Amino acid sequence: MEFKHRQLDNGLVVIGEINPSAQSAAVGFFVRTGSRDETPAVSGVSHFLEHMLFKGTETLSALEVNEAFDRLGAKFNAFTSEENTVYYAAVLPEYLEAVTDLWCQLMRPSLRQEDFDIEKQVILEEIAMYLDMPDFLVFDRGRELYFGEHPCGNSVLGSVESITALTSGQMREYFTRRYAPNNMTLACCGNADFDAICRLAEQKCGVWRPDQAGRDLPAHRSRPQKRYDAKANLNRRHIALYSPSVSMQDDRWYAAKLLSVIVGDASGSRYFWSLVDPAIADTAMMDIAAMDGTGAMCSYVCCDPQNAAQVEAIVNGIFESLVKNGVEEGELTAACNKVLSSIVLKSEQPMGRLVSLGFNWVYRREYISVAQDVERIRAITVEDIKNLIAEFDLRGYTLYSLGPQ
Known about the structure:
Distance between the termini: 55 Å
Structural class: alpha+beta
Strand order of the largest sheet: 1-2-6-3-5-4
CATH topology of the largest domain: Cytochrome Bc1 Complex, Chain A, domain 1
Helix content: 40-55%
Order of helices and strands: EEEHHEEHHHHHEHEEHHEEHHHHHE
């Protein structure tokens, strides 16, 4: 696979990982904007905008947009996080330029008032749906509790109040500022003609005007705390734990990822053998949430309310043991194999590589090949994990718990 890179005069970056032997191709726009870039007055606007792009342009209706994707046989979607909004599609190689052309058009949507009014109700329904999902709610509120006033604590969905009060004018202002070409990356993977994609980007996107689209990166100092809330109609207790960890720019991400697998993978981890296998908890998992300039180690446990105190005691014991004894070589080897399998299996499809390719550029301004990922994972030692635990003590966590009344 060959990496290629070009930047247009207006700041739009085009990158590609080209593999002529691939049987498919994938393309996506990575917009460096999310809930952390919002003010309270426009909370949830990034996610709202993601919906609005599929409503069409001045020349394309929402129906015509969907018909165009269907004609191309595209597997397409989008997602919004605290820091990014990503639009992507996977197609047969002969349709890559056509689907890229379509995305280029959609990146300059009409944002019609009538579409705005209709989609606002869809967003409010989505918020209501997620409020009925305790596993989502415990993470959303736990993140807010952990980050406090830091912008990474902002809710991706916003609130009923913020979405209800949001105007189309506020959305247009936010769009103009955040969807500037100098705040976007166009990435393609697989069997692609990179020069043709660049020519298309120059033709369709070269007239876009750059804007001031910076991002504040305030330091975050965690203050461990615990909060226990009740919610009607719940039968299980849902627990989220957050503790400091590395950012996306930190090379120790690889060690942090392996530590999360050792502690909280779905099978064979310390959480699994201590909580799930003995039926003390239904679910117990840990993952690394590395972000722009900051990061967190996140755990989620679901259990019978009567077991909640025992769960906390066991988790505390696991963290204490990590600080005192570190991890074993066998644990590290198993975690390495799991992560390597995941990386390599995903890389066999262009769509599986697209997000990694895009995010490595967005966060680090570098290309990291599959081989480099494999090499960096295999280079992690028990001592690296020990040093990481010493700097980012898992015992200093913030806990948010949601259960029955």
